[in-house]
Specification:
117 residues; YqhP; transmembrane; mainly alpha; membrane; single chain
Length: 117
């Protein structure tokens, strides 16, 4: 851990020395280099954002298309199996037929032999 911190410190120290030297010897080149670095980083950032947003949007879009297909299939099944809503509402009025009941004659006069408890 101590060696790693020392290595990072040395790298930063060398970067500061190089930056100071470039600033003193050729400031126009330094400004051009900083602007170029910022532009390259901005381009990389926007390309990454564009790629990542399309990727997540594509996943959502696929899910939406799949759900739409299922919904269309369900709607077609309903329309094919059932009548249209207008026909379903208008049912013909049928005259109710009289119920034909018959009486079955049984042995009403004969009483059963039951034990009383």
């Amino acid at each position: 851990m101590h060696i790693r911190n020392s290595l990072i410190g040395v790298i930063f120290l060398l970067a500061i020395i190089g930056f100071g030297t470039l600033l003193l010897t050729n400031p126009a080149s330094l400004i051009k280099q900083v602007i170029l670095t910022v532009l390259v980083l901005a381009a990389i950032f926007f390309i990454y954002r564009l790629w990542s947003s399309k990727k997540s949007n594509a996943k959502e879009q696929r899910s939406f298309i799949k759900a739409a297909r299922k919904s269309k299939k369900r709607l077609k099944k309903r329309q094919a199996s059932g009548k249209s809503p207008v026909q379903a509402r208008k049912k013909p009025i049928r005259k109710k037929s009289d119920v034909q009941l018959t009486v079955i004659e049984g042995k009403k006069g004969k009483k059963k032999n039951r034990a009383i408890f």
